[in-house]
Design goal:
- It is a multi-pass membrane protein.
- By secondary structure, this protein is mainly α.
- It contains 21 helices and no strands.
- Helix 10 packs parallel to helix 16.
């Protein structure tokens, strides 16, 4: 009995270490990518000048539509591949994992071609009356040809708990994308004084350039590690015989729910995109240009920044799926319960301070990225969106948890309930709250979905709420302290009487450093970091001379 308990404890500790290590790689790649994806806005804003809000709204609308088509093209296959690869690896059937990847490539290439053609040829049908969207959607269609194969390969590496190739390729992809965006925007808008719609179209074509570079990085990693994969295949049990037809069936059965759940936030954004202007026209006599500006503020500007913090949750979600799948394959409910508890704690550990911190510096941060354009309203929307990001991040994690334990249909059902709630409250909230209405409606819809999923997980496997609550108190107190410190720095900075980018950047940086140091200090001092991340933080405590 004791030996068995020790084995279970070792498995749980090992899973926690894998989760932390995997999350570290995915978080680093995701954060750096998101930061790059946000920083480009500063020069992009300057070069577009008076066309910036219109250009950003066009860019955001195009990307919302593209994101939905991209998720359909990827078809949930990367996450499904990661889950199934982890499943067969846990059974020491590495040969089947390799075959699974090759069959997935066929699906990825076919869906990429079909969906890319659908977006390119059907672009006029998806514009909602805005003809400027047509060239933008045409340029985005090229990316859909490449990204499914790239994403599938990332899923294959993740199934082997190899997160570094995914993280590094993600960073390279974003670096190439941003470089192409800035070069073309500078040439078209600043040097040639050209058409802003053409400049936006080139900026969206950058998605294809970035995807190609990311795929090349993954190809190099695969080539370097081919002997390692061959060795695993050679040592497989080879006790299972899985026909090609069954492999295709498994991929599709796992992938379809991933489409819906992976598109969850995008679906909510598309609801906002197609309903906001019609509802606002009923609420008052507003021009299309003004409503486009409002949409840019809540649907694009704030969204770009909060996605930096949400990426923390996304990185954790990607890591959790294969780990949970392995535990589920072994039928170890105790291990599943422990991983669920750890996943929620890690989510709180990174998401709560990040969201509160961004809310505290919303005003100077908004000025750094977007200048003085509707500064007051933009800052308020960013602050509110920062709080909302906790729910968006929680959704990415809990939906991944359900997928990891093969509760896909149930998760889709719960998301459908949340979507219906979003539709019901959308009209009155937008009518009376304007630009804040879609955000509140999204929060309510996702809250319902998250509650239903968490309740289901608790009923099936048991979530250690006592442990979570005890550690949450410490996380919340430290996060509030971080918020307070950052707010004091922002208030002192406002006494300087300047709203320029340089002063705002300085204030934001000081607030982030002081607030962030306080949070890290409190987590290390209280030993909460050890309980959540593991003993590896002891070295950091020694370097910071914290007892």
């Amino acid at each position: 009995m004791s030996a068995r308990s020790d084995q279970t404890g070792n498995q749980t500790a090992s899973a926690q270490d894998q989760m932390v290590a995997g999350s570290a790689w995915m978080t680093a790649g995701s954060i750096f990518s998101r930061i790059l994806g946000a920083i480009y806005i500063i020069p992009w804003n300057i070069w577009f000048g008076t066309f910036f809000l219109q250009a950003n709204a066009l860019y955001g609308k195009g990307y919302n539509i593209y994101s939905f088509f991209l998720i359909a093209a990827i078809a949930g296959v990367p996450s499904a591949i990661a889950k199934q690869v982890a499943h067969y690896n846990a059974l020491n059937e590495y040969g089947i994992s390799v075959r699974l990847y090759k069959r997935g490539l066929v699906i990825a290439i076919l869906t990429g071609v079909i969906i890319a053609l659908l977006l390119f040829l059907g672009a006029p049908l998806f514009t909602g009356g805005d003809k400027n969207l047509i060239p933008v959607l045409h340029s985005l269609a090229w990316a859909i040809l490449i990204i499914p194969t790239m994403s599938l390969t990332r899923g294959y590496f993740q199934g082997f708990q190899q997160m570094a190739p995914s993280a590094i390729s993600q960073f390279v992809e974003q670096l190439a994308r941003v470089a192409y965006m800035l070069i073309t925007a500078f040439v078209i808008m600043y040097i040639l004084k050209g058409d802003w719609v053409s400049a936006v179209s080139q900026s969206t074509l950058a998605a294809a350039i970035g995807a190609l570079c990311g795929l090349i990085v993954l190809g190099v990693y695969y080539w370097k590690r081919r002997d390692y994969f061959r060795g695993l295949v050679a040592g497989s049990n080879e006790e299972l015989v899985v026909p090609a037809k069954q492999l295709y069936k498994e991929i599709i059965a796992q992938a379809v729910p991933f489409i819906i759940l992976g598109a969850g936030i995008t679906i909510f954004q598309l609801i906002d995109q197609y309903t906001f202007a019609p509802i606002m026209h009923l609420a008052g006599n507003y021009s299309d240009a003004y409503l486009n500006d409002l949409f840019a503020l809540f649907g694009v500007n704030a969204n770009k920044l909060i996605m930096i913090t949400i990426s923390l949750s996304s990185a954790l979600a990607v890591t959790v799926v294969p780990l949970l799948s392995e535990a589920y394959t072994r039928g170890n409910k105790h291990e599943i319960s422990g991983q669920l508890t750890n996943a929620f704690l890690m989510f709180e550990f990174v998401m709560i301070p990040a969201a509160l911190g961004m809310s505290a510096v919303a005003r100077p941060l908004n000025i750094v990225f977007y200048g003085q354009t509707q500064e007051a309203l933009g800052s308020s929307i960013l602050a509110f969106s920062s709080y909302l990001s906790i729910l968006l991040g929680l959704y990415t994690v809990v939906s991944a948890l359900m997928q990891g334990i093969s509760q896909n249909r149930r998760a889709v059902h719960y998301f459908a309930v949340g979507t219906v709630v979003k539709f019901i409250v959308q009209w009155p909230l937008v009518y009376f709250l304007g630009a804040f209405g879609p955000l509140v409606a999204t929060g309510i819809g996702l809250f319902v979905t998250c509650y239903l999923i968490i309740h289901s997980l608790d009923v099936q496997f048991g979530i250690n709420y006592a442990t979570i609550a005890k550690k949450t108190n410490g996380i919340l107190l430290a996060s509030i302290g971080t918020f307070a410190i950052a707010r004091v720095v922002v208030m002192l900075g406002s006494l300087l009487g300047s709203n320029g980018r340089i002063i705002s950047f300085t204030v934001t940086a000081i607030a982030a450093v002081l607030g962030g140091y306080f949070y890290v200090y409190m987590m290390l001092k209280s030993r909460l970091a050890d309980a959540i991340i593991g003993n590896r933080v002891a070295g950091l405590r020694r370097r910071l001379h914290i007892r």
